[in-house]
Amino acid sequence: MTAMPATPVFTIGELSRRTGLPVKTIRFYSDEGLLPPTRRSGAGYRLYDVHALARLELVRTLRELGVGLPDVARALARETTVRDLAVHHVEALDEQIRRLRLRRAVLRAVVKRDSELEEVKLMNRLAQMSDEQRHRLVEEFWTEMEAGLDVDPEFYARMRAARPALPDDPSPQQLEAWIEFAELVQDPDFRALIRRLSERQAAARAAGEYEQPGQAQREQWFTWMTEARAALDAGDAPDSAVGRALATKVAADSARGDQNPQDPGFRHTLAATFADGGDPRAERYWQLLAIINGWPAIPSSQEELQFLLAALRA
């Protein structure tokens, strides 16, 4: 009768040479029960067969994927499936990636601003906020802006509705925009600016002079900015004939029946109103929201606005 060929066995050193794993690592897996020896030699050395070699490759693969030793043991014992392990670890990795992106956004902001320790702590806290906390921050901001004032409820409802909504997998730019946005709405100077605009609206409503911004007004503003841009591109100064013509047009379009569009006082008051409404921080508020929410980019119109203000004051 022909004898069956002996099954080859390997020492830990031979397993190390075949797999590239350090002897220390293989011995550790064996001590932890993940790689029990097939048998021992007469001298007591651990020996492993081809099945143990395949088991070791599986352990290495799972460990390289970040699976912890307890879960590896459960998989080897058939207490869980590799698929269930994969699902669990994909979720864990997704959360880890999210947190790493948050950290990266904070660190980028730190580098950009050369931040001090307290500001770093604040930025990290802002980055960790939940959707509910972000929405509450905006809600509280607008509630304070209209508290005790008779303002247009429809207008402020629209302001509240434009909330930051970070996607589940935000880009670094979106995270950085959120940090800047959260700091902006908590900035005392910015809050004072928006509150002042709210008070101005309430006063206009009380005097019967308030008119809710409509499409015609937005188109009118766009026309003014377009003409200011053309003047800038042509090298015209605010006190040039082109600048004066634009100022005359803006004053005439903006004056009520009881106001004189040629009056320098009226024009200066109009310029002050435009300056507050077109403050760079107010513009930045909407630009940041656009980045966070993935809206079309909102270009700056500060150069055009400054030209128009100078023309009105000239």
From TrEMBL:
InterPro entries: DNA-bd_dom_put_sf, MerR-type_HTH_dom, MerR_fam. Residues 9-78 form the HTH merR-type domain. Pfam families: MerR_1. GO terms for molecular function: DNA binding; DNA-binding transcription factor activity. PROSITE patterns: HTH_MERR_2 (PS50937). Keywords: DNA-binding. This is MerR family transcriptional regulator. It comes from Amycolatopsis panacis.
